[in-house]
Specification:
Strand order of the largest sheet: 3-5-6-8-7
Distance between the termini: 12 Å
Helix content: 10-25%
Number of strands: 8
Number of helices: 4
Largest sheet: 5 strands, mixed
Structural class: alpha+beta
Strand content: 15-25%
Order of helices and strands: EEHEEHEHEHEE
């Protein structure tokens, strides 16, 4: 099993996830590849919670697709340089002076996920990934019907597994049951 400090390779723990790290492709809000690796690393405790949510989704014939998990600090800086809006992109940390940390992508303790059919095909959700409009919010009045039901089911299985949702993005969940550890700026293959 591949591991680095608190991070483990998710597919080594459970191969049933669909991994589509958007920042390892050009299909993201930057229009270019930000990550050097398409391997999905995540905090080991966060991974166990995500496996629990995946098992709940499987009971309905659905799978969890992971869009983002661990993110190097340098990638966070690049995002901030492109979109300096704290509603959508967290301000990059000053790692030389930082002594307190939060659950974050930068330590692998939060994830961006969606639900897909068992064959990997998309199901209706409120918006696309990294939508910077009000449609990203689950409480958006524009979100109705099957898309709202699917997002609410995702939120339910994730919170049942111990995650805390971020109200501004229906796909973003924190593992606040794990003590935050130091952020990392490593590229893992």
């Amino acid at each position: 099993m591949k591991q680095y400090q608190n991070l483990v390779r998710l597919l080594d723990l459970d191969p049933e996830f669909i991994i589509d790290l958007r920042y390892a492709t050009d299909d993201n809000f930057t229009g270019s590849r930000v990550y050097t690796s398409a391997e999905c690393y995540i905090d080991s405790h966060t991974a166990r919670q995500l496996i629990e949510a995946k098992n709940a989704a499987a009971k309905r014939g659905l799978k969890i697709k992971v869009w983002d998990a661990f993110r190097p600090v340098s990638a966070q800086q690049r995002f901030w340089d492109l979109l300096p809006d704290n509603n959508f992109v967290a301000y990059p940390p000053d790692m030389e002076h930082m002594t307190e940390f939060k659950n974050s992508h930068m330590n692998g303790q939060c994830v961006d996920v969606t639900l897909v059919n068992a064959d990997g095909s998309q199901i209706p959700m409120p918006s696309q990934f990294d939508d910077f409009t009000e449609k990203a919010r689950l409480d958006c009045p524009l979100t109705t019907g099957e898309a709202r039901e699917n997002a609410e089911f995702l939120r339910q299985i994730m919170t049942d597994a111990g995650f805390t949702p971020y109200e501004g993005e229906w796909w973003h969940f924190y593992d606040k049951n794990t003590l935050p550890v130091r952020y990392l700026d490593v590229n893992l293959d």
